[in-house]
Amino acid sequence: MELFVPSKTSMKSPEKIARFSSCRGVAFEMKPHSDPFAVPPPLVVDGGRGSNRFWLPWNHQDAPFRVHPSDPSERSMSMRSSHFCDLDDTDENDFEYDLTDLEIGSFVQVEKEQKLVPVSLTSKCEQQAKVSKQKESRLSIILLDQGLFTVYKRLFMVSLILNIIGLVLAATGHFPYARRKAALFSIWNIFALTLCRSEVFLRVVFWLAVKVLGRSWVPLGFKTATTSLLQSLGGMHSGCGVSSVAWLVYALSLTLQNRENTSPEIIVVASTILALLCLSCLAAFPLVRHLHHNVFERTHRFAGWTALALLWAFLLLTISYDPNSKSYSNHLSSRLIKQQEFWFTLAITALIIMPWVTVRRVPVKVSASSGHASIIKFEGGVEAGLLGRISPSPLSEWHAFGIISDGKTEHMMLAGAVGDFTKSLVSDPPSHLWVRKVHFAGLPYLINMYERVMVVATGSGICVFLSFLLQPCSADVCLVWVAKGIEHNFGREIKGMVNGYPKDKVIVHDTAVSGRPNVAQLSIDAAKNWGAQVVIVTSNPQGSRDVVNACKAAGIPAFGPIWDS
After folding, report:
1. Helices 182-197 and 293-320, interaxial angle, to 10°?
2. Low-confidence residues of the chain, pLDDT below 70?
3. Do residues 454 and 535 lie in contact, with contact meaning Cβ atoms separated by under 8 Å?
């Protein structure tokens, strides 16, 4: 097998590209590549020596796949990854850059030196024009990147349309109950959206889905439909959020029409709740959410808490107010427990409080083999497929990561150094971090629902799948991992975890040695070879979409993270 490494060459400074933060505290590129993985593979001088893919073993004659530069000052041509699942890693000061010349150029082979030299095919002006064009289409990239008719968008539309129908019927007099209880319908929607984001509730739902559907006789189509539904519950969360605002607007308009039978305090409180709900919806708009993630997170949290407190005040005022005497009654408790609004608001409060009851400050051990990623170790084993949240300051920000554990005495997280917090883990490792003791379930947890699963990871995305290699699992799991400088960037410990898994179930491709492969085609070939029922991928947004779409086109069910998963 011939291995070719791109040579160091003089290149023009690549253009900056726009970036935004994801809901998981990592950075996505606003500028999608034409195909981030499909760099033409190096030509092989000796045509009979095979391809550049590493189909099974980690080591060739016990030597790791690693590139050692001949000169200590020599740097990799690849620029720093702008997403924790990207494949490149490079200079610390070039975080916001991308190798435009490399992405749009072509490789030519110099047979005598057996090196690859990138040749730019476009001028710098053309590159600037492309960057400018893509900056203008940020919103369309976020909203339309995964298609117009995704399950997420269908759930959003179903939730919204059902509520609109109810509103129209109430407004036209065909739904008198909804007209009398418009505020209750708003509270119902808030309860539903809280359920869709309750980590405790969803942990139970995911567990039930695996227990009930994780049987061989359950049709594969039913399993994949359930996976799509559970992964896309954020659509229902968003739809119910918008609907709660619509119902509250309707309820407030009815109150204003009949203001002689209500108090000014009730109107003021209801108007303030409406303003806070609108603020939360605006902060959750995709463009705002990605470009200003901390603003979204804090606005959502503190506006939500304030609205909940005011909702309790609204209930107490409306239930105790007597329109005949224009005063508030003292017999509140007997009336309160008979109202549906009270019980739904109590349930909302319980769902919001539960995760915070489990918040603890715990000791951690942080290590980093390179500036690319850090490993954070905690005490206690964790079930495979679960994710956890950590924070340096619990009221300001939380970051979610996949959990790596053998299920025994400890667990760890692999955090790619892409943001301020994750970079600080490398430069200034903390001794303690805040955690939520209740770990939550996500897409990786549903691996347990299938019999044969192929997981595809790029870069640090391997973290969500490693527990399945270390623990007994009901599913037969096969792994494809594409990353750069595996031992150097991720350390011997992570490499050893994968190295200990059966060799016939692992494909490892080190891009530092053989360049970027076409991960989509590699995934299809591997899934067919292993007879996988489903493919689950964790990569950057463009890479995940390409793998998922390619597998589906080949007739293989596939799932990857969505922007609001």
Report:
1. 140
2. 1-148, 563-565
3. yes
